[in-house]
Specification:
277 residues, alpha/beta, TIM Barrel, 2 domains, eight-stranded parallel beta barrel, 11 helices, 8 strands, 40% helix, elongated, binds 3-methyl-2-oxobutanoic acid
C-alpha cells in the first residue's frame, strides 16, 4: 500500500531542507493524476469559487461546496495529504461553529487537515480546532476572503508595520500548533525572513523560492483559467489551448461524419434486424 504523506512529514521535510509541493484540486480524476505524479498535498481551496464555479471572488463558497469537492479529491488521493479550506464565515461566528465546520471537513469530506485565513484575530479558533485533534494550516499575507477590506488582491507586508504584524502572526500560529503556513503575495525578503524565523514550513504562493514549499491553483499553472492571471503564476502547460483544439477537432469530425469511426462502434448480427419493423 502507498504510504500517505502526513502532517509530521511536513515538519520533517522542513528540517531536512526538502521542498514541499502542493497544488489545489477539486475533483476525483484530477486528484488521481496529481497524486500519482507525486504531489505532497492537495488543497481543496475556496479558489474553487472562482476557477470551478465562476464567481468573481471566494466569498460565496459554502462549507457544503468545499465538502462536496473534498469528498471527490479524497477518493483520488492515495498518497497526498488532503487539506480542505475553511470558507468565508465558517470560522468567524463562534468557536463552537468553527469546530463543527472543521469537523465536517474531516468526517464528511475525508480531509486530513483544514486551512484558515488570518493571524491574531482568529487564533482562538485555530487553537480550538487543533484541540479537537484536527491539523491546521495557517494562511497569511493576501487573504482573499478579506478582499473587500483590502480593496483588491494586493501584495501584503511591504510596510514596516505590515511586515511586523505578519511575522508576529506567523509566530502566533506556530505557537498555536499549525503544521504549515501559506504565505500569499508576500515580498520575497519578508517571506524569507518568516521562513527562517519559524520552525513550521511556509508554503509560498507569490512569495518567492525561500519558502519551504510552493502551492499554485492548478488551472493557473496548466493554462486553463484566463479571467485573472496573477504575476506569480508560471504556466507549466497550455491545456486551455489544447482543450480548445481538441474540442474544435471533435466538432469538425462530428459534422463531417468522421466520428465515430468503425472502431468506435459495436457490431451485431444484422440478420436479427430483419423483420423487426
Ligand atoms: O483557495 C486557495 O486555492 C488557496 C491557495 C491559493 C493557497 O487558498
Amino acid at each position: 500500500m502507498t504510504k500517505k504523506v502526513t502532517v509530521s512529514d511536513f515538519i520533517e521535510k522542513k528540517q531536512d531542507n526538502e521542498k514541499l509541493t502542493v497544488l489545489t484540486a477539486y475533483d476525483y480524476s484530477t486528484a488521481k493524476l496529481f497524486d500519482s505524479a507525486g504531489i505532497d498535498a492537495m488543497l481543496i481551496g475556496d479558489s474553487l469559487g472562482m476557477v470551478m464555479l465562476g464567481y468573481d471572488n471566494t466569498l460565496q463558497v459554502s462549507v457544503d461546496d468545499i465538502i462536496h469537492h473534498t469528498k471527490a479529491v479524497s477518493r483520488g488521493a492515495s498518497r497526498s495529504l488532503v487539506i480542505a479550506d475553511m470558507p468565508f464565515l465558517s470560522y468567524h461566528i463562534s468557536v463552537e461553529e468553527t469546530i463543527r465546520n472543521a469537523g465536517r471537513m474531516i468526517q464528511e469530506g475525508s480531509a486530513e487537515a483544514v486551512k484558515l485565513e488570518g493571524g491574531q484575530e482568529i487564533i482562538d479558533k485555530v487553537e480550538a480546532i487543533i484541540k479537537a485533534q484536527i491539523p491546521v494550516v495557517g494562511h497569511l499575507g493576501l487573504t482573499p476572503q478579506s478582499v473587500n477590506v483590502a480593496g483588491g488582491f494586493k501584495v501584503q507586508g511591504k510596510s514596516k508595520e505590515e511586515a511586523k504584524k505578519l511575522l508576529k502572526d506567523a509566530r502566533l500560529l506556530e505557537k498555536a500548533g499549525v503544521f504549515a503556513i501559506v504565505l500569499e503575495c508576500v515580498p520575497y525578503p519578508l517571506a524569507k525572513l518568516v521562513s527562517e524565523k519559524i520552525n513550521v514550513p511556509t508554503i509560498g504562493i507569490g512569495a518567492g523560492n525561500a519558502c519551504d514549499g510552493q502551492v499554485l491553483v492548478y488551472q493557473d499553472m496548466l493554462g486553463m483559467y484566463s479571467d485573472m492571471v496573477p504575476k506569480f503564476v508560471k504556466k507549466y502547460a497550455d491545456l486551455g489551448t489544447q482543450i480548445q483544439d481538441a474540442v474544435k477537432g471533435y466538432i469538425e469530425e462530428v459534422k463531417q461524419g468522421e466520428f465515430p469511426a468503425k472502431e468506435h462502434c459495436f457490431s451485431m448480427d444484422e440478420s436479427i434486424l430483419e423483420d423487426i419493423e
